Amino acid sequence: MKRFDGGSLVPGATWHATAETEAEVVRKAVERLKSEHGETEIRPDMVERIKERIFEVQTHH
Questions:
Q1: pLDDT tens-digit map of 18-45
Q2: How far apart are CA 35 and CA 31, in angstroms?
């Protein structure tokens, strides 16, 4: 499972996005940036900054 913490990019943000794939985490993070932070255009460098901050989390089976 992969995770991105919104606060690692947006100071004060407490949300996070998790998914099985990096692409899905990026998609969820972009949606959140648009809906909660008013971003209308997500530039390629923003996507790269999200990807740099994605990390692996252990899942409990």
A1: 999 999 999 999 999 999 888 899 899 9
A2: 6
Whole-model pTM over 0.70? yes
| CA–CA–CA angle 46, 58, 54 (5° rounding) | 10
Output the CA torsion sign for 30, 32, 33, 38.
positive
**CA 7 and chain centroid, separation:** 9
CA-only gyration radius of the chain, Å: 11
Complete edge-to-edge strand list for the sheet that includes strand 55-56 = 16-19, 2-5, 55-56
Residues 6+ away with beta carbon under 8 Å from 9: 29, 49, 50, 53
